[in-house]
Write a structure and sequence with these properties.
The protein is mainly α. The protein has one domain. The protein is elongated and about 55 Å long.
């Protein structure tokens, strides 16, 4: 089993990181640590984990962009006026919360909210990829310092 995971480690890490960044509650950090302990290339692992997690966050963001009107109107029953006011406040102050997109439990909903309020993709990209890269870089550095 270990040999199978190690042989396809980069792909598995990418896929698990992608899935973990959607609204499905999974974690990918354990696999990153396990693959680092198997001496796979740390830079490539960091890239795969960050790319997968970022693209998963983008999926959540895009789903929110297209589903927000239905959710706001039919499920939450939020008026157009209230939604417009919340959107304005979020775009001004709340989009910085996307730096916390890496935090378990709240990170995926933050990406969803970014899509609901249509944060410009360039801003979304910079904030989310920064947060996710720093999280995986920290885990990689911490693991390497322990195992070496």
């Amino acid at each position: 089993m270990t040999e199978l995971i190690t042989a396809n480690g980069y792909l598995y890490l990418f896929l698990l990181s992608f899935t973990a960044a959607t609204l499905i509650p999974l974690g990918s950090e354990w696999l990153l640590v396990a693959l680092l302990m198997e001496s796979l290339n740390p830079s490539l692992l960091l890239f795969c984990a960050t790319a997968g997690n970022f693209l998963g966050a983008c999926t959540t963001y895009i789903i929110a962009i297209y589903c927000a009107p239905v959710i706001a109107e039919k499920v939450l029953r939020i008026s157009d006026r209230s939604l417009a006011r919340a959107s304005s406040l979020y775009k001004t102050y709340g989009s910085w919360s996307l730096l916390l997109s890496w935090v378990p439990v709240i990170g995926d909903p933050l990406c969803f909210v970014g899509g609901v309020f249509k944060v410009p993709f360039a801003r979304f990209f910079i904030l989310v990829i920064t947060g996710k890269f720093l999280r995986y870089a920290f885990i990689t550095a911490a693991t390497l310092s322990i195992i070496s």
